[in-house]
Amino acid sequence: MGQGEEVNTRNPSDVEIQERGEIYFFYRPKVGKEEAHSSDDVQKMYIVLRPESGETSTEVKQAEDDHDDEEKNKEDVQPSSSAGTQGGHGAQEVNIEKETLLRFIVMGKKSLPDPTKKSMPFWGFVELVTTKIQDVKDALKGEEYDTKTRGHRHKPPARALGEGMYRILRHHVGGVKDDKKKKMHTHLIYKLELPSEDVNEQPQEALNVEREASFLIQIKNPEQTGKQGRTEFRGLQRKRRAVFPAHLQGQFGKLRYHAADPPDFLNYEGCEFLLISASDDIEEELGLDLETEQTHDASCSDLVNTFGVGETGSADALLRGIWV
Ligand SMILES: [Zn+2]
């Protein structure tokens, strides 16, 4: 189904598309659960972004050999187990029009932001950045392991929850004319292609994965350590935070947050960000419509074709909108 097309329905000068691609949503049931029946049974929610084109065909990501294969899959079932993972650093160029680039993102609150609570930021971070599909498959799979205190544990594999197209874009509030004082922020917008619109969408509704949504996205300055205000998040431990190259880190100045401009910030493991609900009607808000291809068929699903249906053997959450 691919990255799809966007159509400008109003004056397009307020909005500049920075990046286009595919977006996939997953959830993982809690340790020990064979399946989830409600959001209470969910351990993690993941987003995978696969950029396919943008303002430039080449993006900068962390250096490939920064991966610590030992630690990569030890995503925090127990928060202490991931303490050794290092945030990504270095620089490697990837041509996103020709090569696969995948960002594996963990949402801190196990859901997307509640669209009715527009001012509440939801924290998330990039756990894995890779050019290899297998790395993401490994991150999604289940695991059997033994603990000293709690005996044998089963971490269930992640379930596919949604598939669609996304854009990261600059939004100039108040237009671009007022150059000196122009205010710009960045949005992550998406529109679902799967599940199709005629299914129940139980897990999707429970985890706030709407048919379409628009979020403000702000990148957190990994070097900012100042006092923690009410809206501040504890976030990742310092050594897990991204180490951006100077040209990216320099954009923050002394600020705590920066727009996702360029989107290359998201190509560093340990990149923390905030999503803030902006709108559930992209066309009304930004004068932009995303044209998706609706399908009911697993064989047309890029998600299924790329990552398979996993060890569960079931794509029922994705295709039928039911908990599995
Ligand atoms: Zn905006």
What does this structure look like?
Helices cover 11% and strands 36% of the residues. It is mainly β and 324 residues long. The protein has one domain. Strands 2-3-6-7-14-12-11-10 form an eight-stranded antiparallel barrel. Strands 1-15 form a two-stranded antiparallel ribbon. A hairpin with a 3-residue loop joins strand 8 (143-147) and strand 9 (151-155). Bound molecules: zinc ion. The site of zinc ion has 4 residues, from strand 11. Residues 171, 185, 187, 278 line the site of zinc ion (ZN).
In a few lines, what is going on in this structure?
This protein is mainly beta and 324 residues long.
Class based on secondary structure composition and strand pairing: mainly beta
Report the sheet-strand fraction: 35-45%
The number of domains: 1
Task: Report the bound ligands by name, code or SMILES.
Answer: zinc ion
Tally of DSSP β-strands: 15
Shape: globular
Helix content: 10-25%
* Rg result: 19 Å
Largest sheet: 8 strands, antiparallel, barrel
Multimerization state: single chain
Name the average pLDDT: 87
Low-pLDDT runs of 5+ residues are 69-83
Strand order of the largest sheet: 2-3-6-7-14-12-11-10
Order of helices and strands: EEEEEEEHEEEEHEHEEHEHH
Distance between the termini: 24 Å
